[in-house]
Structure formats: structure tokens, C-alpha cells
User: Which sequence fits this backbone?
């Protein structure tokens, strides 16, 4: 048994097809079939069953597919490390939203890097959510617990929220809200109890834009408390903390479960929300 053979098992498990697995791996379908037959002979049991045009993993195969996925990720990590010019540094990738990166993470990053001189941390705050299942990030800090995924999941705290009401907008200040795709978030559900979200005249998921609009005193909406606290004290607004915040969850790739550096990063992320 060798890794090349196990890679074929993992590829067929993902694609449910000998031909598609062959294309992914850059080999021919005959090789896929021959190597699987050799493994099945070695183990004395079938790994896949043909049904409805698919190659479905047997119970025995399903039992090892997650471990094979972890091994594949570890191999990818080793290959990336060997291609780095500075082998003293180990680059890990974290994805989150901008407000968490800017207001929770950035102030403490210099201290973290002083403590971990071997660490290089790549932080992604793009609108495109990095896909953990496709190995686009090692860690993710998310608002809310994911409903699915084979990640290590850890609730690390809560992001408090504040209702900000402008005082210069007369009886009906401009409403600033998230786009409709985010209307099911706790903050938008709270805002919908007193406002018609369909009447929002500013729609954005960019918290810095929301903050600037509300600081004018002519708009109302909801901000994370860490941003509401930075509003100009002289700004003509009323700030009211909300009883309901957003749960903050840390996701970690499963193959990093026993990785010492990964544990230090995870504990540091949790400490940012300890209050």
C-alpha cells in the first residue's frame, strides 16, 4: 500500500467516477481500475460499488475517506512549505470578515508574531468567502456556527451589537442596512422589528461604510459595538446596546488537530473575544 494508490481512492471517493478521478489525477482510467483492484485484493474487500452510473464507496471505504482527506491536505501543506523561499517561516491562512480582522486581530498581531517568530499569517478579508472544504484556508472566524463541514469547530465568543439612531434625520432618518441576502442575520432581524428593511436607502455589508453614514447623524442602523464605540463623541447619534449579539466561531482544518503552532493560533483567536 502506498500514497499513490490511496490518492486514487480519495479521488474516486470525491468524483464518484473512475474516469473523472483519472482526469483529476492526470492518469488513465485503466490505471485507476487496476490499482483499485490491487488494493481490494490486498484488503480482501470491495472499496466501491457501481450503482446508478456512480462509483459509491462501501462502508469500509467511507471509514477511511476522511483520514485520506486529512493526509492529502497534509501533503499539500508540505509541498507548499518546500516551495517557500524562507523555510524558517511557516505560512498559515486565516479568513474572516474585515471588522474582525481590523478591530479584533490587527492590534494584537505584532505581539503574536513576536511570540511566534516562525509564523507568517495570511489574512483574507475579501467578499469571497474562502472555502475551507476546498483547502483555501487553514482557519476561519465566522459569525454563527456553520451547519455542515468536517472542520474542528469552536465557539470563541460573541460580537456585541449596538443600535445607532441619527438625530438629524427628523422623524425618519435614512435607514442603512445589509443587502437582502443578509436579512436573516440577528442584527437585521432586530432592525426589522422597528423598520421596513425594504425601505433601506443604503445597503452594504461594509461596516466601515455603515459607520461613516451613521456618524453623520442622518442615518440609523446597527453596528458592531467595537465600531459604535469609535464614533465621534460629538456625533448627533443615540447609541443603544442590543441584548442579542453574534456568536463567533473558529473553524480549523482537521489535520491541524495536533499541530502545536495551530493550537497557539486558535488559542490566540479565542483570547480576542474572551470578554
Assistant:
Amino acid at each position: 500500500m502506498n500514497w499513490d494508490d490511496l490518492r486514487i481512492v480519495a479521488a474516486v471517493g470525491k468524483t464518484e467516477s473512475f474516469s473523472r478521478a483519472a482526469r483529476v489525477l492526470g492518469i488513465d482510467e485503466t490505471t485507476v481500475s487496476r490499482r483499485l483492484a490491487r488494493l481490494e485484493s490486498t484488503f480482501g474487500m470491495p472499496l466501491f460499488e457501481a450503482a446508478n452510473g456512480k462509483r459509491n464507496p462501501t462502508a469500509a471505504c467511507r471509514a477511511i475517506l476522511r483520514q485520506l482527506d486529512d493526509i492529502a491536505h497534509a501533503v499539500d501543506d508540505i509541498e507548499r512549505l518546500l516551495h517557500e523561499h524562507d523555510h524558517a517561516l511557516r505560512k498559515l491562512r486565516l479568513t474572516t470578515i474585515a471588522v474582525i480582522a481590523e478591530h479584533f486581530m490587527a492590534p494584537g498581531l505584532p505581539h503574536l508574531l513576536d511570540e511566534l517568530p516562525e509564523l507568517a499569517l495570511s489574512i483574507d478579508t475579501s467578499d469571497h468567502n474562502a472555502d475551507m472544504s476546498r483547502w483555501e484556508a487553514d482557519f476561519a472566524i465566522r459569525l454563527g456556527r456553520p451547519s455542515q463541514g468536517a472542520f474542528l469547530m469552536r465557539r470563541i465568543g460573541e460580537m456585541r451589537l449596538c443600535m445607532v439612531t441619527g438625530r438629524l434625520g427628523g422623524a425618519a432618518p435614512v435607514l442603512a442596512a445589509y443587502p437582502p441576502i443578509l436579512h436573516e442575520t440577528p442584527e437585521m432581524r432586530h432592525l426589522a422589528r422597528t423598520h421596513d428593511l425594504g425601505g433601506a436607502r443604503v445597503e452594504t455589508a461594509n461596516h466601515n461604510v455603515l459607520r461613516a453614514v451613521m456618524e453623520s447623524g442622518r442615518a440609523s442602523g446597527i453596528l458592531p459595538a467595537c465600531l459604535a464605540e469609535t464614533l465621534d463623541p460629538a456625533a448627533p447619534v443615540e447609541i443603544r446596546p442590543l441584548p442579542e449579539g453574534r456568536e463567533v466561531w473558529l473553524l480549523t482544518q482537521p489535520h491541524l488537530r495536533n499541530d502545536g503552532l495551530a493550537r497557539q493560533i486558535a488559542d490566540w483567536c479565542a483570547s480576542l473575544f474572551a470578554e
Remarks:
- The chain has a mean pLDDT of 87.
- Residues 161-244 form a domain with the D-Maltodextrin-Binding Protein; domain 2 fold (CATH 3.40.190.10).
